[in-house]
Design a protein that fits this description.
single chain; mainly alpha; 59% helix; elongated
Amino acid sequence: MSAEHDKKFFDTFMLVLGILIGIAILLYVLARIVAANTQEKHVISDPTNQAVVAERIAPVAKVAIAGQDNSALAPVQSAAAAPAADMGGEEVFNMACVACHGAGVAGAPKMGDKAAWAPRIAKGIDTLHKHGIEGYQGSAGFMPPKGGRADLSDKSIINAVDYMVAGSK
């Protein structure tokens, strides 16, 4: 009796399993049909998506040919950035200069350290302004141009140098 009972259970189990697999396949096919008729068409026809794809597959470089008009190959010039507003010395110091001049990083004289600033101040304020704007590599350390903040105006850097010198006299 148990062999017959086991066979009946196995047949019923396989039938239920087959029906569930069939339903899963049917749901998958239905989902693909719905997606093909809705989402995929909208995504493919979306102008933003087309622009992104066009940018992604655009050639990396173009070849200029002698004797032909190559003006289209000129690099794209971005709109000129608005000139940076001049900021006060304390504001620039707290925003950019304090990273090195607050802790003495890379040989930078600390703000208020009269002994470290004295030989630099002796060279003249114009020299300090020049080193602040253009950068400086000396035996005591390294000063990047504009303290690494190329977005700051020259006047802002001059204000920061004047602020540090006044606080270190």
